[in-house]
Structures are given as C-alpha cells and as structure tokens.
Amino acid sequence: MSVFTKVSHAELREFLKQYPVGELIGFQGIGEGVENTNYFVDTTDGRWVLTLFERLNVDDLPFFLGLMEHLAAHGFASAMPLHTRAGGALTSLNGKPAALVRRLTGQSVLFPDLEQCRQVGRALGELHVIGLSYPGRCANARGAAWREQTGRLLAQKTTDAAVRALIEDELAAQARLDLGALPQGVIHADLFRDNVLFVDDRLTGVIDFYYACNDALAYDLAVTLNDWCFEPDGRLNPARWQAMTAAYRARRELSEAERAQWPLVLRAAALRFWLSRLYDWTFPREGDVVHIKDPEPYRRILVHHREHAPPAW
C-alpha cells in the first residue's frame, strides 16, 4: 500500500464525481505495503479507501473486486467495492486502474492475543468455504513458477554464499511438492496481521484481496500461520498456532494429503515471502512513500521449518 502515483486534491475531486459519495473532505496516502498506491479518502457521505493498481494484471482486477463483493454478500467481513453511477467497480485515475472501497472500522494488531488468533483462523476457514461458490478464476502470480524464477535470479544476484545456498537447496526441496494435487479453492494469499482489522477482540474486517487467487487451501493456511504465529526472532508461538489451527479446523478439516505434505507447504509459504521481500530489497522501486519490508524474519521462519517438524495436529 505504498504511494507510487501522486494524486492532487483537484484530480481526486474530479475523480469522485463519478461516485455517489458527496463532496471531498480530505485524503491521505497510506505508507504500508509494497504493491499498490492507496489513499484514505473522507467525503461528506462516508470514509473510503482508494487504490491505484500499479503492477497487477488489469485482466485480473475484476476477479479481486468480484470476490470482495461475493464474500461481503455472504456475510464475510470484507470491504465492499463501490460502483460508479454508471455501474462499474473498476475505473481509472492518472493513467492507472483504480477502485474505491468502503473503509472498514477497526485497526490491525501487531501482537495478537489468542482470541484474535482464533478469530483469524475461523475467518480463514469461512473464506475458504464461501469461496468455493465463487465462479471467478485467477492463477497465483506468486506460485511455484514465480518462486523458481525469482529464486534463481536472486541466487545469481546475491554475493552472500549462505543466502545462495539456502535458496538453491530450498528450491530443490520444493520440487517434491505439488500444490496442485491438494484441495483447491479461492485463497487470500496475504492474510497478514496488517490485513485484518479488530475492535478489541472482535474481527471487523479482512482487507487487501489483491493477491487473492485459486490455489491450494493449505498453502493459504500456512501463509497465515507463518505471519501470526512466529515471533520476530523466528521462534514459534505454540499457543497462537494451536488457537488458530483449531479454529480453522472447526470450519474446514484438512485432508490426509494436506497433512502429509504439510511440512513442505509451510516451507513454500515462507519461501514465497522471503523471496518477494529479498527481491524488493535487491531491486527497490521509486515512490513518494515506499515501505520495503525486511526479508530477514522470513528467512528465519523458513530455517525454522527446515529444522523443526510442525506442531502435531
């Protein structure tokens, strides 16, 4: 959610005329995240989030926006995209595809408690069940082919022999994993702490569906556990892990195939975010407000999974 494309007050005021939102009061760029330009927007008729899509395939944008509408229509705590007076959810601003969604209440948490972990696990299970009825299709842009290609590029680029060895060894290990053979569905693929909102211990919103895609459901659970259940120094928090997995399994139980592949699935999820952060660290992008996340925590998580078996189910 960095700011790569600047928007002036006059440009935004003109843009908002196509929506039934009243008059512009104010707006502010959002610095977190790394992919899109985002602004908080306040108008006389509500509070909104404006997103300008910087690098996403424009053909995939209807999938993301349609998924958010589908989930919200089924009672899931997802932001609802706003339609223009002409009826479309996807528009453009300053040469970039753009969308306006209702801003949800609540704040993200840095140090979640057990009840918050339970609610996230339950919400992820709900998302996976509700998503089965969503007809849209979108491939995972950060899937196995991307991990292989990006890993090879970074292994060639780095001067750190230990980093190179870890990338090459993990890519060889991941060749044994076929996520396509595991139960599939719509996944969020980025359900990190900064993408879930709470008011106290009540989950009020799941946001940023712009990595959502069709992929292995267990992979999505692994992505979520890796963020919510590890400490900054790479240590696992067993209580959070147990709270989240138990809540998820109350809504959707894992298959025998998922359990058998689980250690490699956890490693695939850790590898994906280590590589993406390492890539952004190695090839930084210009922007007005750009947030580049440290790759080191995900290297530690990957190493943990390589050296320790996951907690028993």
TrEMBL record:
EC number: 2.7.1.39
Pathway: Amino-acid biosynthesis; L-threonine biosynthesis; L-threonine from L-aspartate: step 4/5
Pfam families: APH
Main enzyme class: transferase
Keyword annotations: Amino-acid biosynthesis, ATP-binding, Kinase, Nucleotide-binding, Threonine biosynthesis, Transferase
Keyword Transport: no
InterPro entries from the UniProt entry: Aminoglycoside_PTrfase, Homoserine_kinase_II, Kinase-like_dom_sf, Pseudomonas-type_ThrB
Residues of the Aminoglycoside phosphotransferase domain: 28-254
SUPFAM superfamilies reported for this sequence: Protein kinase-like (PK-like)
Catalytic reaction(s) noted: L-homoserine + ATP = O-phospho-L-homoserine + ADP + H(+)
Coiled coil feature spans: none
Any GO MF annotation of the entry: homoserine kinase activity
Similarity-based family: Belongs to the pseudomonas-type ThrB family.
The name this protein goes by in its record: Homoserine kinase
Organism of provenance: Sinimarinibacterium thermocellulolyticum
Gene assigned in the entry: thrB
